[in-house]
TrEMBL record:
One of its GO terms (molecular function) is glutathione transferase activity. It is found in: Endoplasmic reticulum membrane; Mitochondrion outer membrane. GO terms for cellular component: endoplasmic reticulum membrane; mitochondrial outer membrane. Keywords: Acetylation, Endoplasmic reticulum, Membrane, Mitochondrion, Mitochondrion outer membrane, Transferase, Transmembrane, Transmembrane helix. Homotrimer; The trimer binds only one molecule of glutathione. It comes from Polypedilum vanderplanki. Its main location: endoplasmic reticulum. It comes from the Eukaryota. It is an enzyme of class 2 (transferase). The keyword Kinase does not apply. Gene3D superfamilies: Membrane associated eicosanoid/glutathione metabolism-like domain. This is Microsomal glutathione S-transferase 1. It is a multi-pass membrane protein. It catalyses: RX + glutathione = an S-substituted glutathione + a halide anion + H(+).
Amino acid sequence: MGILDAISLENEVFRAYAFWTAITVLKMLIMSPLTGRLRFKNKTFANAEDVKFTSPKGKAKFDDEEVERVRRAHRNDLENCIPFMIIGLFYVLTNPVASIAINIFRAGAISRILHTISYLNSLQPWRALSFFVCLGCTIYMSIQVAMFFY
């Protein structure tokens, strides 16, 4: 299978990759407006111009637990979803077994959604378990890609 065949809409693995990557990106994009909503709700802004926009006598604050929890969850997404999505595309190029690849993409994306829900609601051990599911998927794909292209 050539590269053009691998990234074709005819390839069910590529279609699954595209779908679950889109879901993961949408999940990540939700985090910014959520942070903004909590900043306005709690009147917690990190930039002086934002504080002045809402309260002329207010000061920038960096210690609101609710806002910081969302920011940490978002940062965790950036640290984990992006590598998952990048290696996933390379994994598609290895012509993997479709059922395995599709389930890896599904597990990775769903685990990231569950990780965010768990993070925002302080749910352990679910947060750790969901983190390790996606990490395991990313490591598995990385090994497969490295062995294929070596």
